[in-house]
Every structure is written in structure tokens, then in C-alpha cells.
């Protein structure tokens, strides 16, 4: 039981497995491969933004990045526009999207640090700027990704979607970063007590700066891949990832107060979030019932995971 | 009215636009609640393209457009109150809610301002409404499918944003159509939020558990995403009703060239904002205009596909802009002068 309690992410995986089972059972097992494939594909995008959000939330109370949807839209729009204008294919797009991420991260932290605006307000305000920049840059026109890029983002390798492979590599890197590097320990230390961390000699500002940049880079990458995957960037393409990015962190068993996070939970929660909607769609429930059940089930999972940590 | 006839009518009448001296001093404002998708962007561009020449020609004194940042009714109510203070003579509004800004609309009317709502219409009786018969749009989809599939078949329904009246209205039309034609059966229903990527995600999730799907009924902005999901799942492409987006039309053309694929596409033209502009101008001009007007759909059929694709900007939405004469026709059709 103690080993169980030490793994708060286990609940998201249990919930995910239950929902997967319930969905597949509906068709007597015939849909197992199809459902799994779709879940891996779409969870990959949630995982990418979820990891970034997790690092930010780990920094402690009040730290959250609300500019993720706008960043995704901006990166998706500008990268595909750059490929369309300059040619050069995937590398140009990737470069532009990462530059967008870098710029977004710097802008966010400048407001937070230099102007001393709380992160929740700072990232909300910058998100208006990023969204407007995306509108201004392309007026809502969808530019198609080049065939090679569109093909790559929708294909699979060894039976697993390419985007899921990318998310998996990023997950492993994030796990190493959080659990096995000084940077990760510092992020956790700041989240547990910023003052104590500062007194212990942790370069608090530098670590927070790097964390916001990391989050923006992951959001940009996710935006670039999502735009390539779905046949072009749309102005509202990031909208559903605001709540998702926070939800997967919390459902995954990371503490929303910061200082205590885990990486595997992000995957469990991302798959769970997708499969939950799929299950309710499969059972043919109306939109109202579906939304109520989504809320109730998420609450149930969080309570189950939270109950564990209390008894510890 | 098909795409082609609207286009021809527009070309034929464009030359005959007369300057109305009576409204030369009048100022019209556009209150818009949202700009975050390609349809709304096209709507705003159409507004600019039509109203700028009208201002230059002296038909009206000003036609400024304003968009709220957050798509909130409270924000739009405040925006309308500002417009009242700024002394506009008419406010053309695409509302965030049919009821929530009624208070502000009433204030505007009481201040002697003409209010014309379109697309997102308001229920306040003092305002004019340029409405779309969304229920008919849903019914038309089933009508079309009846012609294509006389024996009926399984349908997948992609709905819009839950809780918005447009979604309920189109859904009601589809449901009514299916009830009248029992050969059709809705085997799955997902919410695509009128966005390609959301629709793609929802359809990809539900598809593995569905039997063979003969056709997909949609609400616009979701057809291409559905097509992608069917392709990714390796399933035969059903008849997918499209919603006039360029990527949908381009995909349709590709399929048509490759395999003779046939479907139809229907939606409201974003240029409906320009119809609302001319209606507001006509009211200011003292014309008798009934409170409820109906805007025709922009329907693209197999034969119109190439023309529509040529005139639609890459990545945009098929569009029609209205002239003063078009507005006069719509008003006459509703029984006005």
C-alpha cells in the first residue's frame, strides 16, 4: 500500500484502463486497435502541453501558463506561413515554431519578473497579444502543410503514431529533467518553498525563467505538429488545450499547489481525457449528459488520487 | 439560391448602386462579439470591402467595426453602451447571446438608434433580425441525402458547440428530416465545435465503434476534419456534407477528380454582415422594413464546385457580398417597401 501511495499517478492509469475497457467492450472488442490508435494520436498533443504546464505548476502557488492556446495558434500559423513563403520544409517550420516559443517564454517571464505581474494575469494578457498577432499574421487563412510534413504527422512507425513517438521521447526527457537533474530538483525546491530555495542558493529567477521558456517551447512544438496534423492552423485550434493542459497535470496526480509532480501521470491523464469523451460518444449520450459525466468522472478521479495523498 | 445565381445577380447589380443623399450624415457601427475563426475574419473583411466605398461615395458618413476580445455578453453590452454614447445612428450587431444583451439593445433603441442583428440575432423586439433558417439547413441535408441514397443508410452527425442555439436548430432540422425518412438512422453523434481539428479528434475517437457509415451530416467547418478521420482509420469515405470552407472544397475537388466523388456544401456567407449594413442603411433612409428578414443560404452543388473554388480565397470561406439592391430584394421578399 505504501508503494501504491508513493505513486499518485497510478490513479490516472487505473481510470484510463477502466474507460478503455468500457469503450472497447461496447463493440465486443472489435474496436480495440482503432480506439487505441486514436487515443495515442490525440493524447500526444495533450502530453506535450501537459508536460510544459506541469513544470510551470510545479513552481508553486500562482504559477500557471494561460498563454498555451494562443502560443499554439501563433506557432502553428507562423510556421506554416513561413514554409509557404520561404520553402525549406519541416526544418524551417520547426525552427520558426521554436523561435516563437522562445519569444513567448521571454515575453511571459519579462512581465512576471520585471513588471511583477502575477503569472495568471501576465500570461492571460500576453495570450491576447499572441492571439491577435496570429490573426494579424494570417487573417484566419488556413495554409496547408507540405505533403511530407502532413504525411509524417499522420503516419505511424512500428504501429505507433509518429506524434505519439515524439511525445514519448519528450516524456522520457522530461522525466530525466525532473527526477535526475539539478534543474528538476531546483524546480521542485522552489515549488515547495521559494524563500527557502532562495536562501539555499537556488538561482530562483533563472530557474523560473527557464521553466516558462520550456513550457512555451513545448506549446509551440505541439501547435506546429497539430497544425501539420490537421491540415493547417486555425485561429481557434488551441482553445481546448487550456483546460486540458491543467487538467492532465492535476488528474495525473501532480500537486496543483506545486512542489510535487510526476511525469507518468501526464500520459495516463491525457489518454484518460480522450478516452472519456470517446466512451461517452460511443455510448451515444447527449451533449448535456456527456459534459456532466465528464465533470463528475474527473472529480471522482481527482478525489481518489487526493484521498491517497491525505492518508499518507 | 445557388452560388452561381447569387454571383451573377451581384455582378449585374453592382453597377447600378445609387447614392442615397438622405443617409449621408448617418453613422453606422458594427458590434461583433468574436473574431477568432476564418468565418468571422471573412465577415469582417467583407464589411470593410463593402462599407469603405459606401463611405467614400457619401452614402453614409461612417461604418466602423468593433470586436470584443472575450466573446462575453457583458463585454458586448458595455461595447453597445459606448456606441450609444458615441452617438451612432445605427448599430449592426452579431450578438454573443440572443437574450443576454437585450438590455443594452433596448437602451440603444430608446436613444433613437436603429439596431439590426444578424447571424447571432437578439430577441429584443425593438431590433431588426436578419436570421438564418438553420432548421431548414439541417432538413436540406437530409433531403439531399435522400436523393443520393433512396434506401437510406447509417448517418454520423457532427454537431456544433453544445449550448449554442444554432447547434440546437440545425440538429432539430436533421432530426426532423430523419424522422420523415425512416430509412436513415443516426448511429453516432459527436460535437465538432465547428472546428476541423476538434471534429477530426471526435470522429477519430468514435469511428472504431461505429458500423458502416453511409453519410456524415455536418454544421459547417467540420467536414474536412471528418474526412481526415475516415482516411486515417482506413475506412471508405462516406458522403460528407461540406460547409463552404476552402479546404473542404479543395478536398472535394481532389476526390471528384480521383473518383467522381459527389456531395454538396451549404453554409451562410460571411458577407451577410454587408446585407445587415444595407438593411440598416435602408431603415435610416426611412424605408419600411419588416422586423424579421431571412437570409438565403449559400449552397454549392456539384456543378458549381469549380467556380466556387476559384472565387474562394485559399484557406478562407466561400463568400458573397451583398449590394444595396440585394438588400432591397430581401426586404421586398419579407413584405417591406
TrEMBL record, chain A:
It comes from the Bacteria. CDD domains: TM_PBP1_transp_AraH_like (cd06579). GO terms for cellular component: plasma membrane. One of its GO terms (molecular function) is transmembrane transporter activity. Keywords: Cell membrane, Membrane, Transmembrane, Transmembrane helix. Pfam families: BPD_transp_2. This is Ribose transport system permease protein. It comes from Amaricoccus macauensis.
Automatic annotation (TrEMBL), chain B:
CDD domains: PBP1_ABC_sugar_binding-like (cd19997). It is found in: Cell envelope. Residues 28-288 form the Periplasmic binding protein domain. One of its GO terms (cellular component) is cell envelope. Residues 1-21 form the signal peptide. Pfam families: Peripla_BP_4 (PF13407). Keywords: Signal. Its main location: other. InterPro entries: Peripla_BP_I, SBP_2_dom. Gene3D superfamilies: 3.40.50.2300. One of its GO terms (molecular function) is carbohydrate binding. Belongs to the bacterial solute-binding protein 2 family. This is Ribose transport system substrate-binding protein. It comes from Amaricoccus macauensis. The lineage of its organism: Bacteria, Pseudomonadati, Pseudomonadota, Alphaproteobacteria, Rhodobacterales.
